[in-house]
Amino acid sequence: MPSSDRSVSRRQALTLAASSAAAVAVPGLLSSAAWAQDKFPSRPITLIAPWPAGGSSDGVMRALAQSASKALGVPVIIDNKPGVGGTLGASAMVQAKPDGYTLTQLPLGIYRLPHMQTTPFDPVKDITHIVCLTGYTFGLACTADAPFKTLKEMVAYAKANPGKLEYGHTGTGTTPHLAIEEFSEKAGIQLNPIPFKGSAEIMTAILGGHIRMMSGTTEFAPHVQSGKLRLLATLGRERNKAFPDVPTVKESGWDTITESPFGIGGPKGMDPAVVKVLHDAFKSTLDDPEVKATFDKFYQPTIYMNTADYTAYAARTFAAEKNTIERLGLSKKN
Question: For the chain, what are the domain ranges?
Answer without folding.
Answer: 37-135+260-327, 139-234
